């Protein structure tokens, strides 16, 4: 469904700018049924509106159109989840996943952690030779999901898109992946969780802001690099399996009211080329003495947990507070 409005601009009708609200609701016959078709209908000034409680959306959101500074494209998530997870169906306690290992498993909304020594938790094991998942005796087959998509939210060479109140989960790679050139990209009320690589990762020349957001149970919470410019405000990065928050390359970051804790290997990683402005950034000490969970990609071979990995970068007490406790 598309509803239209026009801006009263004091000019002739033909010169006024139209905008549309593009509604997605699989439960309503007069709305778009999926994200892909709705995203293809968007142009500058439009709003993509996901009906409350209409998800989860088990597909990729990739909006190719750009907005403008005056007329951004707005994505109103209304708390819906966009996910790479698909339900698992067990027959006599067994199933054969459609995707190759490694993958993320989720049970009743919680990531199933994996250790080097003991494999998956939650009463499930993976037989690599058979490509088979098996439930241990007494474990319910209900509520199991597996990651199936490489990305969940993609931005490629697009600008002036505003994302609000979304949950992004279950990717085989980055939950939110930004590439190429882009400006005026903003995320408010975002939750990125349970992705096999980063919850949020930007590369290339991307300028974005992230506010009032949470990153947890990803391999890494947030990792931006190259010539990216990132603003963080009121952000929590916790309980990711590898790195919490990281910036490298020639990245620029402005961070205020950011909290980091419970991440498995490193709470905060910075490389020397990074230009940063920190204010009220709080890091809780890493309480892990050895690797707690199995991770992949950037941290697959890391073995010694630490609180900070910032090289020669010097941070003052008013820029970065280190708290002796393991979590708030």
From TrEMBL:
Arranged from A to Z, the UniProt key words for this protein are:
Signal
Q: Which domain of life is it from?
A: Bacteria
Q: Where is the signal peptide?
A: 1-19
InterPro entries named among the record's database cross-references: Pectin_lyas_fold, Pectin_lyase_fold/virulence
Q: What is this protein called?
A: Right handed beta helix domain-containing protein
Q: Which organism is it from?
A: Coraliomargarita algicola
């Amino acid at each position: 469904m598309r509803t239209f409005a026009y801006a009263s601009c004091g000019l002739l009708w033909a010169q006024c700018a139209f905008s549309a609200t593009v509604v997605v609701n699989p439960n309503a016959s007069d709305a778009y049924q999926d994200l892909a078709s709705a995203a293809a209908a968007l142009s500058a000034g439009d709003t993509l509106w996901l009906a409350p409680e209409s998800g989860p959306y088990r597909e990729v959101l990739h909006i190719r159109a750009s907005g403008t500074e005056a007329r951004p494209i707005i994505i109103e998530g209304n708390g819906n989840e966009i996910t790479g997870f698909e339900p698992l169906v067990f027959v006599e306690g067994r199933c054969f996943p459609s995707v190759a290992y490694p993958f993320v498993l989720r049970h009743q909304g919680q990531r199933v952690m994996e250790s080097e020594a003991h494999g998956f938790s939650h009463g499930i094991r993976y037989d690599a030779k058979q490509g088979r998942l098996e439930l241990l005796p007494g474990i319910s087959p209900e509520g199991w999901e597996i990651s199936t998509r490489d990305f969940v939210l993609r931005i490629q060479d697009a600008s002036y898109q505003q994302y609000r109140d979304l949950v992004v989960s279950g990717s085989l790679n980055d939950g939110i992946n930004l590439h190429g050139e882009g400006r005026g990209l903003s995320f408010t009320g975002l939750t990125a969780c349970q992705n096999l690589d980063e919850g949020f990762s930007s590369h290339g020349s991307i300028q974005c802001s992230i506010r009032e957001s949470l990153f947890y149970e990803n391999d890494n919470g947030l990792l931006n690099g190259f010539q990216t410019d990132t603003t963080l405000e009121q952000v929590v990065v916790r309980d990711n399996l590898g790195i919490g928050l990281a910036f490298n390359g020639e990245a620029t970051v402005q961070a205020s009211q950011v909290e980091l804790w419970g991440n498995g290997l490193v709470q905060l990683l910075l490389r020397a080329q990074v230009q940063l402005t920190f204010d009220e950034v709080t890091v809780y000490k890493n309480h892990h003495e050895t690797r707690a969970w199995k991770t992949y990609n950037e941290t697959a071979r890391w073995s010694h947990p630490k609180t900070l990995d910032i090289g020669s970068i010097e941070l003052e007490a008013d820029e970065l507070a280190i708290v002796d406790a393991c979590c708030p």
